[in-house]
Please model this.
Amino acid sequence: MMSHNAASSHLLNLEHLLLEIPESAYALPSHAYSTSGALRRAHLNQMALESFLPWVRAEQDQPARLARQSATWPSIWEFVNGTALTVGAQRLVLVPSEAIDGDELRVAQEWVDLPNWVADYYVAVYVNPDEGYVQVQGYTTHRQLKERGTYDAGDRAYTLSTDDLIPDLNVLWVAQDLGLQTVPQATVAPLAPLPLEQAQALIERLGNPAVVFPRQAVPFPLWGALLAHDGWRKRLYEQRQGMVEQWSLAQWLRAGISGMAAEFGWAKPQLQLATGLGTRSAEVGVCRMLEIEGQAYTLKIGPSPESTGLETPVWRFELAPVDGTQQIPVGMKLRLLTEDLQTFDNNEDGAIAPVATLYVDVMAAPGEGIVWAVEPTPEAYEPEVLRF
Amino acid sequence: MQPRQRLVDIFSTFVQFEADDFKRWIVDARLKRSMGSCLETSDRGASDQFWALYWHKVWETQQHPLATAHITAYLQEVCYWVARKMSLNLTMRQSRADLFQTAIARIDTVLKRFNPQLSSNLKSYAEFAFGNIIKDTLRKNQEADICTDWALLNKASQKRVIDALTHGGLEARLIATYVLAWKCFKELYSGTEVRNTRKLVKPEPATWQAIAQLYTTERLSQLGPNSPAASPEIVEQWLVTTAKAIRAFLYPSPMSMDQPLAADDSASLGDRLPGAGEDSLLTELVIQEETEQRRTQMQQISDVLSGAIAQLDADTQYLLASYYSENLTQQQIAQALNIQQYTVSRRLSSTRKALLKQLAQWSQTTLHIPMTPDVLSSMSTIIDEWLSAHYRTTESSSG
Model:
C-alpha cells in the first residue's frame, strides 16, 4: 500500500532494489519484547524479511529461507538487529534500519564474531514503514566488515560507511552465476564455551529486564557464548519477558505443552485408536516431529518403562520414523547431553544395523537440564534445554 | 557562464554564485601554482581528460588533498549544469547554489566509485553521479522534514548523530554524553505506531523519567565515573539539541567559495607537490596509452549494450527509456505499462541484472579482464551511466 503522502517517492533511485512491504508485515509482532526499542527492532526485521524473502524466491533461481526456524527469532531480535537467510549455499544477514540518512551499515558483533552466526554477506536494508517500502542500499562481505570496518566498542558493532558497500545487489547474484571464486568469510576464532554455573549466574543477572542493555553488561566472550547457546538464549529471552519456565518436562505432562515449546513443534502425542477392538493406548509423554535427510521422524519423551518403583524418575527419549514400515538407517544416532553440552555415560544409542527405534534412558535430578541431539543433524535443529 | 579554456584554469578555478546564478570564476592560488608546475614539467599537449585521469590516479594512490581539489575544480561546470537542470525539473525550496553545494560536497563518493579501468570519462560519470546524489539528498531531506523531532531521532544513524553534533560544534566528550542519552531514548521510546512513525509525539513525563534513569545508570560504565548524571529535563534538552543538530546538518551552510580547500599548511603541501619529477612522467605515459585503449573499449561496451537493449521486449525498452530519461515517475511508468508500481523497480532490477551478466560474460571472453566482484560492481555503475547517457541523447535527438 502506498501512502498518499508520497511526496518524495519520485526521487527514489530505482537502481537500488525497491520492494513493497506486504500488508501482513504490518501486523505487530506476536511475541513479547522487554523494551520499546526491542519491539521496534523485531518489527523492522519482520518487515524487511517479509519483503525480501519472497522476492529472492521469485527472482533468484535458488532455494531461499530463514537460516533458523521462525520460532527462534524473537529470542534473537530481543538482543540484536539482523535476520539471517540462506540463499542456495550462501548465508546472508539482512540488516534493516529506519535511518533516513543511510550513512552507515552497522552490524552487531554477534553476526561477525560468533562462529555459528557468521554469514557470507551483509545486506543494508532501509525500511520506510510510512511509505510502505524497503530499499536495499548495498551489501558487503564478512571479510570486508572484519578488515575494513570500524569496531565500535560502545555498541559492540562493526560499521562501514555506506560509500564502502557494493551498491548493486545484482553483483552478488551475477558473481554466483558466473561461478566466481570468492572467499567472503574471514576466519573466526572459536569461542570458549561457558561453564554451567557461570551461564546460570549470567541468566539470573541478565534475565532481569531492568538491565536494559544486557549486551553491554558483560565482556563479549561471555555474552557471545551465552547467546550462541540456543537453549540458554531462549531461557534468557523468556526470563526477560517474565515468562515462567517454558521447557519443564514435568510441567508439560502436568499442565500441557508451554506456548514457546509448542512453537518449536512440541505436542502431546496423538491418541492411538485401535480400530474396532475397543482398546486405546493413551500415551503419556510429549513428542515433536523432526526431518532428517528428507525423512520424517518423531522424537518422543516420556517416563521410561524402566522407572516403575524407582524414586527418581527415569525418562526415555525415543526416536522413530513416522512411517511405521520404515526403520532407523545405519549410522543414525540419538544423543543426550548435559545442559552445557557435555557427554555422559550411556548417553547415546546408535544404529549399527537398521532398527525400529533408538532410545536413551536417563535419570536426572529435578531442575537439571538435558539437551537432545541427533546425528545426522535434523532440519532447522538447534539445541533446546529441557528441564526435569 | 563562460566555459574555461586554459588547462591551468580548468584545474584551479571555482564557481562563484550570486543571486543563485553564475557570477564569475575564482582562482585558488595554490592550485594554480600546482597545475602550472605540472604543465611545465610535462612536455606533451595533453587534453583536460588526460589531466583528469592523472589527478584521479594521484588521488587513488596518494589520497593527496590537492588531487581532490584539482578534480573538484575540473568538475565545476558539470556540477553546475546538473544542479541547474535539476532545479528546473524539480520544484523544491533549495536554490541552485544549494544543490550545487550538495553535489560537490560528495566529491569523494563520486571519486570512489569511478573506475578508470572501465569508465569512459570522469565528466560523463560525474554528471550521472551528481544527479543521483542530488536526488538522494533531496529525498532524504524531504523525509526528514515530514518527521517530528522525536521521529527524526529514531530515524538517524549513529554516524549521522555524531557527525551532526560535531558539525554543530559540540566537543567530543559532550558528544559521547549526548549519544548515550540518544541510545537510551531510542531503546525506551521507539513508539508503537506501525505506519505513522514520522509523527511520533513527545514522550510522556514518566517516559522521560525512565530515560533519564537509564542514562544515569549506564553512564558510569559507558562514559566513566566523572560523567554527569542527568535529570529528565536535562536529557530532554540534550535530545532537542541533537534533533536540531541533525536538521542543521541536512542543510549545511554553503562553504565559503573563497576557501574551497580545508585550511592546510600550504608550505608542507608545496613540498609534496605531485606532478614534479620522473615518476609522474612515467605515470603520464601510462595514462596516455590507457586513454586510447579506454576509448576503444568504451565504444565496444557501448555496442554490446546497444545490442542487448535492442533484444529486450517492447515493454522493458519503454521502461528503461522512461526511467533513465527521468521524465516519468515510478507511478506514471506503472500506469503506462499497466503494472503495479513496485513491479517497475523489480523489473528494472532484473533487466539490469541480465545486462550485467551479459556484459560480464562478453568482457571475460573479449577483454580478458579478470572478473571479480569489484569489477562487476564497476560494470554495474557503467551500465547505469551508459543507460542514463543513452536515453538522454535519444530523448534530446528525438525532441
About this structure: Residues 1-6, 273-281 of chain A have pLDDT under 50 and may be disordered. Residues 249-387 of chain A form one domain. The CA atoms of residues 307 and 314 of chain A lie 5 Å apart.
